[in-house]
Design a protein that fits this description.
Shape: globular
Largest sheet: 11 strands, mixed
Distance between the termini: 49 Å
Helix content: 25-40%
Strand content: 15-25%
Radius of gyration: 26 Å
Structural class: alpha/beta
Number of helices: 17
Bound molecules: beta-D-galactopyranose, zinc ion
Number of strands: 26
Oligomer: single chain
């Protein structure tokens, strides 16, 4: 069973934190909740890691305390999100089924007590999860104060036990049908890898056959997806129609395909930790846009740091004022909720030193005041922003399989798929261009410009979608390492960019990993390419050369580095170079102008302008000043500023580290 319902955007913004009432005497909950009200919180997430309190012995459920906590919170106007506690299986379960502990690459079984200590394919674990989640669903599913459910917590382990290997082999048998087909797709005649029985196929514990490596990632995805579906099926029947199900994903975690897992969820959410240092909005916005792209709708920021984390070599606090800007940055990129992790410092456990709202005594820490400010902000902004979402005319395509494939064989130790994607994202973010980050398998209707960074894996479906996009007038930007491999991670018997050569009017004659940057000479600019350079060859006399390589390794000298080609009603720019920042910004400016893409607003450096658009088309601007100076911004229209409650005509002044929320007056 898999009844999926749409996520209905809430009628307000949510602010709150993770709350672990089970760790504290019940007599103190009232005071906790009073403090939450003082902070302006309206949501609490509970239950993750509470398995041993919810089911102290097999089949013996103890849910009353959670019922009381939900009710006390509700009475104070605070809704609940419940997390299934499956990332913390209790000791009794592990004692019963030691075989449910995951095995690492070196064959060692995990120890109890460090969470996520489960093999995701263990049938005994599944049975225990089903029993508990069903019982939780029966009890709390009909509760109108439970807004939604988070499944598990940050899926992350990969298990190498014999059962996982066996299931991997079964997965392959189903996918390929016949071993001959697998042998052909994986080119196993190479190094005599030919398989004549499914049982011979290993789990890759290090570098291995590229086809096998990619299928293993798909198998991990599929294993988590089955585990997730099991929980969804246990929950669904008992939930109210408007109750959503989510999972809290981690940053740019690359353990599995997030798009596949998101298909079965109504809502995407994620956990944003800066960790060490301070955040840079030009790159952190990409992680928000990524998560918004999982479901192509607004998301929840299910966890974020109140001050500092505890798991970095240096756990500095975010500078004063910074987390307020982080909250607004998240909202600007489509968050409908911001939840801190966590409420109060636990006396024990592995996370004793993590930032919280209350200290061990139950008194507010200095950070509390900043959360309170966000609470006031959200109260003022809530109604305006409810139902509004970011809208972009430019999409960046993201392909987990290309990222994995390049990561396994980078060919240049410093080449990183993600860094390359951000090389395109950052200058656009700095120019306040709204961006969507989408699966490379998405429909592309409605965009003016699509950027496909290092789209290594090119399936016929992707090629057809890109062709239709350009034929209908879209501007496509293809970069280096494009169109080189098929979905089995095998090289195509075609020159790059494979089936897209028709669009680019150019192909790659050769690619070079670079020892040193090579000069790139454009029209009116001189730059350089680092790490990588592709020597382009024109296939159509109408293809325009936008830049050529200067003298370098001899092979590249004078050859086209960047080309442009008209196709149908659209245009394709093909970038074979990894440009320096100034040249990259100049190139992107030109392409934006050609595609007619407009920024939200032109702002001074260090001021971000985000836009959300209401269902009625109302435009709402969020301006964030990350600098330590007052900034002045010319407004194109008469505006109303909602955080201060003022009408503004002409010039807006934003104080250092401050935010403005504008709509048309
Ligand atoms: C997250 C996790 C939380 C908490 C937090 C600390 O990854 O979901 O439970 O451990 O990190 O930063
Ligand atoms: Zn396993």
């Amino acid at each position: 069973m898999n009844i999926k319902r749409a996520y209905t955007p809430p009628a307000k913004l949510y602010l709150g934190s993770a709350y672990y009432p089970e760790q504290w005497p019940e007599a103190g909950w009232k005071e906790d909740i009073r403090q939450m009200q003082v902070a302006g919180f309206n949501v609490a997430r509970m239950g993750d890691f509470a398995w041993s309190r919810l089911e102290p012995a097999p089949g013996q459920f103890n849910f009353d305390w959670l019922d009381r906590a939900i009710a006390m919170l509700a009475e104070a106007g605070i809704d609940s999100v419940l997390a299934t506690p499956t990332a913390g299986p209790p000791a009794w379960l592990v004692t019963q089924h030691p075989d449910m502990l995951p095995v690492d690459k070196d064959g060692r079984r995990a120890q109890f007590g460090n969470r996520c200590h489960y093999c995701v394919t263990s049938p005994e674990f599944h049975a225990a999860v089903r029993r508990l989640v069903e019982a939780l669903a029966q009890r709390f599913g009909p509760n109108p104060h439970v807004l939604g459910w988070q499944l598990d917590n940050e899926y992350n382990r990969t298990c190498y036990c014999p059962r996982c290997q066996h299931q991997f082999q079964q997965y392959l048998a189903q996918r390929y049908g016949a071993l001959d087909e697998l042998n052909r797709r994986w080119a196993t005649t190479y190094w005599s890898q030919t398989y004549d029985a499914w049982e011979q196929i290993p789990l890759p514990v290090g570098p291995h056959n590229p086809g096998l490596m990619l299928e293993h990632k798909r198998f991990i995805t599929e294993s988590y997806r089955r585990f997730q579906r099991l929980q969804i099926d246990a929950l669904r029947l008992h939930l109210l129609p408007e109750t959503w199900i989510t999972h809290n994903f981690m940053f740019w975690h690359d353990g599995y395909d997030h798009y596949d897992l998101s298909e079965d969820l109504e809502l995407a959410s994620w956990d944003w930790y800066v960790g060490m240092g301070q955040h840079d909005y030009r790159s952190s916005g990409a992680a928000h846009d990524l998560v918004r792209g999982y479901k192509r709708q607004n998301f929840w920021l299910m966890e974020t740091q109140p001050g500092n984390v505890n798991w970095k070599p240096l756990n500095n606090a975010i500078d004063k004022g910074g987390t307020r800007l982080m909250a607004w940055h998240a909202v600007g990129h489509g968050a409908d909720a911001v939840l801190y992790w966590q409420w109060r410092s636990p006396l024990g456990g592995q996370e004793q030193y993590h930032g919280t709202l209350l200290d061990t005594t139950g008194q507010p820490r200095p950070f509390f005041a900043e959360a309170q400010q966000v609470g006031r902000d959200f109260a003022a902004a809530s109604r305006l922003l409810a139902g509004a979402r970011p809208v972009a005319e430019t999409a960046i395509l993201h392909c987990p399989a290309s990222r994995w494939s390049i990561g396994w064989q980078p060919h240049h130790q410093d080449f990183d798929y993600l860094e390359h994607l951000l090389h395109y994202y950052k200058p656009l973010a700095a120019a306040n261009i709204p961006l969507d980050i989408l699966s490379a398998d998405s429909l592309l209707d409605g965009y003016r410009m699509v950027i496909a960074p290092a789209l290594l894996i090119l399936t016929p479906g992707r090629a057809a979608a890109l062709k239709a996009f350009v034929a209908n007038g879209g501007h496509l930007l293809l970069t280096l390492r494009s169109g080189m491999k098929d979905e089995f991670n095998a090289l195509l018997p075609l020159r790059q960019p494979g089936a897209l050569a028709e669009l680019t009017g150019a192909e790659v004659e050769e690619y070079y990993a670079l020892e040193n940057p090579v000069p790139v000479l454009g029209e009116g600019w001189q730059g350089a390419s680092r790490l990588w350079a592709e020597r382009l060859k024109l296939l159509d006399p109408a293809t325009q050369v936008l830049a050529r390589y200067g003298a370098s390794n001899g092979w590249l000298d004078g050859c086209p580095a960047i080309t442009q080609h008209a196709f149908g009603k659209g245009r394709v720019t093909f970038v074979g170079a990894y440009l320096d920042e100034a040249s990259q910004a100049a190139l992107l400016q030109r392409l934006l102008a050609e595609a007619g893409v407009q920024p939200v607003l032109v702002t001074p450096e260090g001021v971000e302008a985000c836009r959300r658009v209401g269902e009625d088309g109302e435009e709402i601007l969020i301006l964030i000043n990350y600098t330590h100076q007052e900034q002045r911004i010319g407004l194109p229209w008469r505006a109303y500023e909602h955080l201060r409650g003022q009408a503004i005509q002409g010039e807006l002044r934003i104080a250092p580290l401050d935010v403005a929320l504008l709509s048309h007056a």
